[in-house]
Predict the structure.
Amino acid sequence: MQDEATRARLRYQPWYLHIERQEGAYVWVDGRKMIMMSSNDYLGLTDHPKVLEAGREALERWGTSTTGARLANGSRAYHRELEEELAAFLGKEDCIVLSAGYLACMASVATFASKGDLILVDRNVHSSLWSGISLSSARVERFSHNNPSDLQDILMTEARDVPKLVVVEGVYSMEGHIARLPELIEVTRDHNTFFVVDDAHGLGVLGDRGQGTVGYLDCTKEVDLICGSLSKALASTGGYIAGSKAVIEYLRTHSKQTIFSAAICPSQAACALAALRLLQSEPEHRERLWENTRYFKQVLNRLELETWDSETPAVPIIIGNKERTYRIWRHLLENGVFSVIAIPPAVPPGRDLLRTAVSARMTREQLDRVGDVLKRAFRKI
Ligand SMILES: Cc1ncc(COP(=O)(O)O)c(C=O)c1O
């Protein structure tokens, strides 16, 4: 429990809020019930009976932790099972799972780019990919966000045979944009490229089976590595990297993030595996997610709020300056809507925003209520 002084200090800060309880789409902060609009529980599976049962059973049998890396201490139940099912689901030969999506994305870049290589990266990619880039000694060129012609311009000045790592997200977590993968692949076609896609926000969300952005855009063959997180639609924690057998084997034996970090615990792997199976056996969660997404966007359109042309359930509401973003965030919090703010450098200057995310578990009444609170906030502030 937090004491009163800590609670008072945190009350006006948009970070690290203390959530006392959660139930469905609601959370309680300071005793107040709020609609949770910043979770990435896209399919609402974090309390699905089958996911809970899988986690409980694994926890009982395998305890709370692997207490070490797999290279040294061995794999446990669910590690290989999850990897094999994820690989098959994503249309790749093999997969490796790690204890965090951040580590997986970082490893996907850091392990494959070295001195003499060129990294071509979308300016707006997630911090985990930048961390991977900063660990490599490769040269880096940034191209404008989701802009194949800018990438093409950069490539005009580069030798074709230089090894190039192209780094993008499948669904951009702040903007909600879907990567223009077919065009990005087309402009890099005659170059010596290795394509990495972080699909943390696409898995479970896009595609007729929820297979993610790469499958949805029919680019599975051209994309070398798909990495991402198990902490969004798959209702767990951990990360994954899927690719060819040779590439995943190289990661197993060469990536520091794999070799020197404790394995994802069996109960989390079991939860992700149960959620992965539910994606396929219960498509109604994804259908409801998209119905809710369309509905929420209509609500925001009626209010004439700018959503950065989001194409997915990750929906930013652009405000444009820090002070006003903070004040609107606080109005929402005080009126029963939990959201999160993103300010530079997390977003480009002038794009300060409230980041919301739709979930399959929300009702239209809840989304209308969020609309009402937003309307009053924008009127008042
Ligand atoms: C695009 C993207 N990549 C990677 C990650 C890291 O995933 P995790 O939270 O599982 O470490 C996140 C999480 O916020 C993300 O949004």
